[in-house]
């Protein structure tokens, strides 16, 4: 016999309130009310203002810096668990700390694994996220993970541009699989950038594998942080004779002087989702909303229906 649930409820962590409101609108239900008590020392306590007993609860919150965003998600999950919610889904459009998915040198943490364990301990019974930095992070969880791909919303936009002589590019070797997947659907060539770093976020050398002369290039990546790699790659490609360079990056972390770099670069356009709210406006940045994608997947999850149609990659 199928399980019986009260109507699904959607709540937002403060950092993702705008996106959560859009998701709730697309889902067709009001966003649940949360009140946060803030103490003078910086401690805070979120509180659900609606009963969640026996409900399927979706808590929407990306865990980009600062660490307060992760802490808020953990507290919300714990509150839902202690309020007798039947199922608790952490909807994390951007899964932070994902770059620390392995030990790449001695005596360092595997932060992505730690975050996964904390989410489960706090009460998450399911995770819905998008474009993880590394696919294997799904294996860090003992609970179901629905790993969505922003390609389902980016590809229709790219096709609408009707670009001739299109070439898909990866800004580094690690993103080659993603670039090849995009090229398959766009029926285009692929080029790869090979880079070496002097230290984190600092590129010492970059080389281009492939020909971009006379091509309209689309760089594809899961996130853009300082925008150093992306703008360096765009400038290099224009120097090598590309007609135009635009970039598709799912998560606009955009830290430091990233906005300034983008404005001064050869990039014609940077296309991102609203998984992380932009810190400032930019004429070069185009935001494509992921709200409808998440709403449809959340509805399918609530009604125990397949979501395989949402996986283009």
Automatic annotation (TrEMBL):
Q: What class of enzyme is it?
A: transferase
Q: Which domain of life is it from?
A: Bacteria
Write out the GO cellular component annotations. Answer: cytoplasm; ribose phosphate diphosphokinase complex
| Residue spans crossing the bilayer | none
Instruction: List the signal peptide residues.
Output: none
Under Gene Ontology molecular function, one entry of this record is: magnesium ion binding
A Pfam family recorded for this sequence: Pribosyl_synth
User: NCBIfam families, from UniProt?
Assistant: PRK01259.1, ribP_PPkin
The answer to keyword Nucleotide-binding applying to this record is: yes
Q: Which InterPro entries match?
A: PRib_PP_synth_CS (IPR000842), Pribosyltran_N (IPR029099), PRTase-like (IPR029057), PRTase_dom (IPR000836), Rib-P_diPkinase (IPR005946)
Q: Which reaction does it catalyse?
A: D-ribose 5-phosphate + ATP = 5-phospho-alpha-D-ribose 1-diphosphate + AMP + H(+)
- The name under which this protein is listed is ribose-phosphate diphosphokinase
Q: Which SMART domains match?
A: Pribosyltran_N (SM01400)
Sorted alphabetically, the keyword list is: ATP-binding, Cytoplasm, Kinase, Magnesium, Metal-binding, Nucleotide biosynthesis, Nucleotide-binding, Transferase
User: Where do the Ribose-phosphate pyrophosphokinase N-terminal domain residues begin and end?
Assistant: 9-123
EC code(s) of this entry: 2.7.6.1
Q: Which GO terms describe its biological process?
A: 5-phosphoribose 1-diphosphate biosynthetic process; purine nucleotide biosynthetic process; ribonucleoside monophosphate biosynthetic process
């Amino acid at each position: 016999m199928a399980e019986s649930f009260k109507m699904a409820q959607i709540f937002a962590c403060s950092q993702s309130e705008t996106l959560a409101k859009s998701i709730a609108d697309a889902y067709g239900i009001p966003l649940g009310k949360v009140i946060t008590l803030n103490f003078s020392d910086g401690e805070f306590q979120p509180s659900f203002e609606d009963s969640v007993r026996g409900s399927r609860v979706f808590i929407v919150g990306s865990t980009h810096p600062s660490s307060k965003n992760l802490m808020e998600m953990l507290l919300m999950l714990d509150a839902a668990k202690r309020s007798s919610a039947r199922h608790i889904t952490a909807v994390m459009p951007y899964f932070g700390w994902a770059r620390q998915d392995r030990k790449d040198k001695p005596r360092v943490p595997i932060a992505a694994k730690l975050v996964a364990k904390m989410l489960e301990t706090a009460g998450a019974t399911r995770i819905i996220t998008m474009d993880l930095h590394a696919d294997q992070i799904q294996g860090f969880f003992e609970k179901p993970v629905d790993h969505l791909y922003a390609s389902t919303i980016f590809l229709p936009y790219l096709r609408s541009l009707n670009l001739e002589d299109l070439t898909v590019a990866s800004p580094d070797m690690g993103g080659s699989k993603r670039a090849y997947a995009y090229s398959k659907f766009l029926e285009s060539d692929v080029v790869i950038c090979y880079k070496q770093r002097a230290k984190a976020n600092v590129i010492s050398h970059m080389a281009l594998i492939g020909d971009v002369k006379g091509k309209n290039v689309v760089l594809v990546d899961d996130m853009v942080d300082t925008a150093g790699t992306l703008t360096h790659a765009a400038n290099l490609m224009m120097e090598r004779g590309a007609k135009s360079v635009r970039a598709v990056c799912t998560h606009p972390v955009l830290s430091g002087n990233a906005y300034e770099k983008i404005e001064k670069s050869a990039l014609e356009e940077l296309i991102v989702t609203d998984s992380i709210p932009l810190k400032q406006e930019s004429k070069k940045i185009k935001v494509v909303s992921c709200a409808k994608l998440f709403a449809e997947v959340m509805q399918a999850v609530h009604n125990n229906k397949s979501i395989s149609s949402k996986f283009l990659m």
